[in-house]
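Sample intake — ATP-dependent RNA helicase
Collected from: Lepeophtheirus salmonis
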Amino acid sequence: MTTMDETTGEDGIRIHFRTPEKITKPKSSEDISSPSATESNIKEKSIPSKKPGSSNNQEVISGLFTGNPNIPSLDNLGNSKDSLPQESLFSQSQFDGHGIHPYIIKNLDSMGISRPTAVQSATIPRILAGKDVLVKSQTGSGKTLAYALPLLHSLQAITPQIHRDSGLYALIVVPTRELALQTHEWFVKLVRSFARIVPGVLHGGEKRKSEKARLRKGLNILVSTPGRLLDHIHKTKTLDLSKIHYLVFDEADRMLDLGYERDVNDIINAISENSSEEIKRQTILLSATLTQGIRQLSEVSLKHPDYVDITSTDGNSVMAISDDLQVDTAVPENLQQTFIVVPAKLRLITLSSFILWKCGGKSMKKILIFLATQDMVDYHHTLFEQSLYSEEGKNIKFMKLHGNMDQGERTKVFNDFREIDSGVISSGLVLLCTDVAARGLDLPKVDWIVQYNPPISTADYVHRIGRTARIGLKGSSLLFVLPSETGFLHEVENQKLARFVELTVDRVLEKVFPSDKRRSLEQAATNLQLKMETLIVEDSQLKEMGSQAYVSFIRSYASYPKEVRHLFCFKDLHLGHIAKSFGLRDAPTKITGIGKSGNWLKKQELRKKNAFIKREDRVVKSQRKRIDQRALIMSEYSSGFDDMDEKPPSKK
């Protein structure tokens, strides 16, 4: 059972949060859960753990507003007079001016799409002319239609007319399951103009048997993730690649980031080996950022390509490609980029307050929150679902999305979040996710992108914020950083990706807990933090989830690549304060065994080294055992080549 506690926010908004109906008071001289608790009487207290037989196990309750590091001066942020690279979003031309079939244009009109975007106007003529194309454009600029429209126009013009059993003519490879589903959905809508052309989709998480059945039935356009496609190339005989006219790699930079470089090369080689000599194949690469990996991929897959870059003064200019981001990478013009520097202890209460602020009263919003790990997503989703209300009788709807969820659940969450309009949500819709939602996904009318944990690269930053302010709509982003992480803000601005506006912790708290006195503000914020901590203490399963989330964050932070450790230094973390940000009262050593000695990273490396040595020993022993066994079965009558008679598994 839970009860509802109430406080009054800005403009008289009533903010509710759930608390247990019956709470066992801690064994201390003062009731820290009391509404009168302030910073003066909870600067730091230790209470005995409830675990039997653990007399030395203490829970630490530290004050939110004491012992925090100083926030460095950031006056020089947001003051640059240099203009940010911009892309003109919409073109002055019309679809019929590019030679697109009237039936396709009529279908677009029925979907409310009347004018092409700039990237579509620049890309469509080049694809229709038979060119290989490398397209670089900001997120949310309409890159999917930039290749889908000319592709469909060209397929319908083939004579004799193609239909389901004509074979596979177009292959679109995308990095994630969600993007595969979204892209397939676009093709399903577009082929209404020509019902004889059949699209299909393959992705992980679905039964291979049902996918094989779809392939046998016949497809003309196939959207797939690289791993699943390669699996079918090797194992499914009915997947015929000999007629591929169009090969598209969408979000190509993300594919390389996810380690699909080898798979992509294998796919290209498989198509080249199986394609007919009479067919001239077109290849299209699309990306929001251009890296060294993209250049290498373009050299392998493209022949005499045209380059489309809307941020360039010349739409056909050859683009300079760097090891990280291209200098003139653009972000949506209607996107307001905000940052907030939050000491570790205040992170949980600040995020909670921000959600309550934006989802309270008339300010009902659709919010996407990025977290570093899957365990963090699971934990914060459960914690917020049990603790945060906006107004009486109306829940904030919390959803979660990460790569370890069941595919059916992932698809449902993705579709539900897309289809629910923020204008009709009774209180607010919040999706907590990992970077699985950062690339290519079209999530309509997202009001706020919150990066609770900073990305490890400016490229990832661009992709995350690209989930809002899409196709000319307005949007906002908020980046949480620790005082030790402010260097990342300068990194983003130096690459001309943002002109930041600062939001302060006090400003967020005042929106939810308005007060004329600083002491009253701190008291109200402390009360909410303590109620959440009490909820965690009383729920052993929730506490276990919090501990796992804490450990996953520490491991994630410690494993950052060397190139960014000057921005995200593990040694700068105060592990006790980080534990507070998860609502945990146990000391770090009680949660993970991680102490302050600084030797944890060395021990981790030593464990990895020892594990590697053990694996090598096992492999060597296994090989020796197989050799010994083979020697035992050999006879003077044996040829020694018996195994060669074994046939490889046949394709089905």
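Post-analysis note: The mean pLDDT is 79.
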